[in-house]
Design goal:
Layout (H helix, E strand, L loop, with lengths): L1 H23 L8 E15 L12 E15 L4 E14 L5 E16 L2 E9 L4 H7 L8 H4 L6 E10 L6 E8 L13 E11 L2 E10 L3 E3 L6 E3 L2 E12 L3 E17 L7 E16 L4 E11 L11 E13 L2 E12 L6 E11 L1
Antiparallel strand pairs: 1-2, 1-18, 2-3, 3-4, 4-5, 5-6, 6-7, 7-8, 8-9, 9-12, 10-11, 12-13, 13-14, 14-15, 15-16, 16-17, 17-18
Length: about 350
């Protein structure tokens, strides 16, 4: 027994000496910038006061809507990487336990050429990364194109992003991805993303976005022909703010998908489907530690006059009590409406958020 204790003590001493030597080695991998661990968590105490589906009415309790654990690592002056895990109450195991999945896994080559970075791996898409940051309340709800699942928040592919001018007033972001989100690729089709960002002043921000998803072909149930089913999304965002006092945002998009809607009538056939959405939000600081926020979204997935009872709306209102620099408690309400439904989803809640 004594020999085993001495053996384990020797192993421990050697390990500690190795770690200490590695930490002092100026040429060791990671000496440019150490590993950084960070994360966030948010969720709610909620009560479904009313619901579109009667089965969801009166459901209440605590829930986590997102948990992040992130590792950032600077390899050298030009290369850095991120690995992030996400868990929430949407991603569940077969026995209804919260599980985690890979949210981000990318390598960045900074200044691959002057003013531009190259990113490879699972990374954010250009669609609403900037508008989401300006909105600043992902803890309350996703941006409109994420909420209504118009564009995935992540995709596995290759990005190039950087400055168009030296001052960074105009910037660009292009990406080629699998169009499979965080899931493995299962077909040969790809998605092509592009965004232009303009920041003429500290108070004003504008973006113009577009993407093309080559979804292959879809068989027309009326004439049996294979027809293109590709989709196009265009979007714009504008944000105006006065320091930390208040901010206003407006975001809108149009999605058009070829041969995706089955029309009715004597000349029934597949037709292109066009959807439209708009989001308006505002936030203001009442005191250093108290703020208010409100938002309204409207979404019509099919503007064809024969498509009825499909328009949706979203209303969010909350008060943000910053009880610590990285901790917020936000009592508020979320209302989701559906055209033609007898009731709406009405959920009073207290949202809790913290990061580390």
């Amino acid at each position: 027994m004594r020999e085993k204790k001495l053996f384990f003590l020797a192993v421990l001493c050697i390990t500690l000496l190795s770690v200490n030597s590695f930490a002092q080695d100026k040429n060791a991998v990671g000496s440019v910038g150490p590993v950084k661990f960070s994360g966030l968590m948010f969720g709610d105490l909620f009560y479904n006061a009313n619901a579109i589906s009667p089965a969801n009415k009166d459901i209440n309790g605590w829930r986590f809507r997102r948990i992040y654990f992130t590792t950032d690592y600077t390899i050298n002056d030009n290369f850095s990487t991120r690995f992030r895990l996400e868990a929430d109450q949407v991603a569940l195991s077969t026995n209804n336990k919260i599980i985690s999945f890979v949210k981000d896994a990318w390598l960045k080559w900074a200044n691959v050429f002057s003013g531009s970075d190259l990113i490879v791996g699972i990374s954010p898409t250009p669609a609403y990364e900037i508008s989401e940051a300006a909105w600043g309340y992902r803890s309350l709800e996703k941006p409109i194109m994420d909420y209504f699942e118009i564009v995935p928040s992540r995709d596995l592919g290759i990005d190039l992003k950087g400055k168009i001018d030296e001052k960074g007033i105009a910037n660009y972001w292009v990406k080629i991805g699998n169009n499979s989100g965080n899931s493995p690729e299962s077909n040969k089709y790809k998605r092509f993303y592009g965004q232009l960002q303009f920041k003429p002043s500290d108070d004003l921000l504008l973006t113009v976005y577009g993407d093309f998803a080559s979804n292959g072909q879809k068989r027309d149930p009326f004439d049996g022909q294979l027809k293109n089913n590709s989709a196009f999304v265009t979007a714009g965002f504008i944000n105006y703010k006065q320091g930390n006092i208040f901010a206003l945002g407006l975001e809108g998009f149009i999605k058009s998908q070829q041969n995706n809607y089955s029309s009715t009538g004597a000349a029934a056939s597949l037709e292109s489907q066009t959807g439209f959405g708009i989001s308006i939000w505002g936030k203001a600081s009442l005191t250093e530690n108290i703020g208010i926020v409100g938002r309204y979204d409207s979404f019509d997935p099919n503007t064809n006059s024969s498509a009825i009872n499909d328009k949706q709306g979203l209303i969010i209102g909350a008060v943000d009590f910053k009880v610590a620099p990285k901790v917020s408690i936000m009592p508020g309400i979320e209302v989701h409406t559906l055209q033609g439904a007898i009731d709406s989803d009405v959920t009073p809640r207290v949202t809790f958020f913290w990061e580390f």
